[in-house]
User: Fold these one by one.
Assistant:
Number 1:
Amino acid sequence: MTSDPTATEFSLPTQWLIAVRNRRDREAFGHLFDYFAPRLTAMMLRSGMSRAIADDVVQDVLLTAWTKAAQFDPARAQASTWIYRIARNRQIDILRRERRPVPDALDTGEEHTEQDAHQALALDQESAQLRAALAALSPDQRDVIEKAYLGDLTHTEIRQRTGLPLGTIKSRIRLGLERLRHELKEIR
């Protein structure tokens, strides 16, 4: 399906996504859509979404896959991993807007491959590096970054909880993120 000589080592959905990425191949996108739409819909319905919202999310996820296909790197993840991650992020966004608790990740029914194991190991290593980089921050910077990004609080909510001025909160976040970027530059 693709002219990429290395593409045959990837799963069929990954080959389709490579074709979309490299040539904006509409036929390959049609195959991706036909393959993932029912699986994503089932995943959304199992999480408790209504059929209408699930259909909207699936449309949005697959549109994102089309528009951001240039960002797909088959060396880092299979198409299924990449697309399910987009779907999971959309699901979390919707649940946050509704202030409902986020359900545990659902089994997608996809077979796990050796490459998935390598990806999981790489993710664990990256997570360990992130934890180490967070630990290297000053306690003040780490506290506001954790509240903002892990606690999902706005700057105003952080101000209300800590009593710190907004400018101080923004400065600590900015400086902490700069330090994290510096510490984690080799991950990119």
Number 2:
Amino acid sequence: MTSPTSPTSPTSPFAELDAADPLAHHRDAYVGAETPLVYFDGNSLGRPLRATAARMAAFVEQEWGGRLIRGWDESWFELPLTVGDRLAQVALGAPAGTVAVGDSTTVLLYKLLRAGVALRPGRREVVVDTDNFPTDRYVAEGVARELGLELRWVETDPTTGITPEQVAAVLGPQTAVVLLSHVAYRSAWIADVAGITALAHEAGAVVLWDLSHSAGSVPVELEAWDVDLATGCTYKYLGGGPGAPAYGYVAERHLAALEQPITGWMGHADPFLMGPGHTPDPGIRRLLSGTPPILGMQPLVHALELLGEVGIAAVREKSVALTTFAVELADQLLAPHGVALASPREAGRRGGHVTLTHPAMREVTARLWRRDVIPDYRDPHGLRLGLAPLSTSFAEVEAGLHAVAEVLAEVTV
């Protein structure tokens, strides 16, 4: 097996792009970025920061080992909210006191979908699109069975994404919640959050947005877009690590009325009262249920510091440059093999990843992994290139796409 050209090689014909990149030096902050491995899966799991290892060791030795149970009084009890506030500030365009970190995306989708339906009593329909991430669809189906609701499915082209016109066509007096993704997990289509949210509000519904494939890569403005509810994972572009806790957003106007279905002690107005009955906290803490994953939040602290230092605008600029470069190279190297672009060609409509389709892509992906070129595969026939702006170089993209071309040539002879 041949190895891809080292993405750090000064002889790379695209080294000048990295030399001109104002964010290139941040790549050195990530574990493994110095190796020849080509990582095209930053939209599934981001590389870890080198600082995370030291932080985890210090936490075990000093906070956990040194402070023990005192850690709850000193910082841990508030950590889901303090990390939530930082996340809201640097990545979500949301005010303090509206984001809490904890649970998985699936659990928070369930909580927030149930809460959204409760905000619109008497309404019996939930709008969801056929190309939404599987978990979103599965949770919607489960809630519909549980509450006797009807799902209004929007048929969505997997190479593009949901549009305001499609949503408008299914909205009506029975619509309680519209559940959609900001960036489509297959095509990277960026939905018109503000436009769709406004349409839903005109119909009297609330909107729950999944930000898993956008937060940390694409600018998000939850308050400016008048979003009601949102959730997303932190292990993709936000760099929280495998299984890192998700986050939930609730607009200030809904906090006092929010009824989430998994009422636990950490969401109580006075968790240590431990009395009969559940009195929800008046703020975003009411979204919490059980003991929050304090260990799981540690990598997020450094990752959010870095994102705040760089700024989401600069991250987006680099992301657009990387995906545009990948599209141009795919046109040159892969189109002759019959590969088609299954992401928006217009950069303003495209999130942080690029999907390329060919009937042989499942086998191509398996062979690439054996060569230390790591994209991922999504049906139908899609090779996804997840390009994390702070850890991916232009030379890495060039090396990886040349490897894709080589493997395609092998499997299509």
Number 3:
Amino acid sequence: MILTGPEITAATQDGRLRITPFTTDQVNPNSYNVRLGPTLLTYTAEVLDAHQPNPTTELLIGPDGCILQPGELYLGHTLEEVGSDTFVPLLFGRSSVGRLGLFVEITAPIGDIGFHGQWTLMLTPIRPLRVYAGMRIGQIMFFAATGPISLYRGKYQSAAGPQPSGYWRDLAEVRAVAS
């Protein structure tokens, strides 16, 4: 079952859901709007390697915004810290942002129960697009879980700012399967 807007508000008040900062004007009928944080990362290597850390460069979004370019992957983050030990979060781009040609979080919309932190956003524009820190970029929906819960304890826990891929940390598991 998906949480309604009033239930999202109630869950933030009783502690089943944490959204910091929380404002009621970002509550939708069945989701919560999240805003774009002020920091972006881009990868600097010509070829990315899943088996090692990849170098990045940091961009700060100034008051005049930042122009995203097609063909580039930008790692952004939510301004809000979001998490729950009770509900399963799913993050999607807002339709108004999609209508500007910006893909937000296409390949990894599901969060884990027990994750608490800022969400890293994978931003890919189809044409040049100016974005601004604080703009409403996505919306998170929350689903009730059934069955026993194992809380997230992974590498992105307590994330602050955009996080580059940590896939290389799973290298031992990948090599074990390959051999």
Number 4:
Amino acid sequence: MSTPIIQIKNLMKTYKLGGETVHALNNVSLEIKKGEFLAIIGPSGSGKSTLMNMIGCLDRPESGEYLLDGKEIGKMNDNQLATIRNQKIGFIFQNFNLLTKLTALENVELPLLYGGVSAKARREMSLEGLKKVGLAERAGHLPSQLSGGQQQRVAIARALVGNPAILLADEPTGALDSKTSKEILQVMKQLNELGHTIILITHDLEIAKQAGRMVSIQDGQLLENGGELVGHLSIY
């Protein structure tokens, strides 16, 4: 069994809503192995966005433990969390989040620019990222000159370029038609075969089924594929 890259134990997160306390995460525990392709599925209000924010180091739990590569995330300050996000996690969003005035290559280069990588190395690494998603020949195109599927491929290349430990994809096919969605999922499968750990957040069961493993979240609690509540000791 490969080493877990993520170990989540008994996470709790509550919100106040209309005078009531809502358990967005209710004693959630989960392990994700290196190289795994995991889908987390749930409807609106199930807690999946809160869990995604926790995994992506965008929020902290009220209690419980989150270890990423063996490091406790909950005790880190904002600057440390920003460093973890920049170095360890590649984000893929539903609406691509590309800068319209930059070319595909320049969009992919952005994380490396912020990371202080030299211009020559940025270009080489970004071209390699575009090559991985089959878009090297479109490097000089603006987002407006690309289809929705091509724009999402650029966004995937941008998430990949710093070689993060995890790709965290939030509804990556939500703005795409069914044919293009299948193409994007195929790209993600290919990346997973290359060894990338991928966590896919979705509300769509057919999309979630494309992953190697699926857990569902409901009322802030996790359920494994067969419907068994995910326990805090072992889920394998």
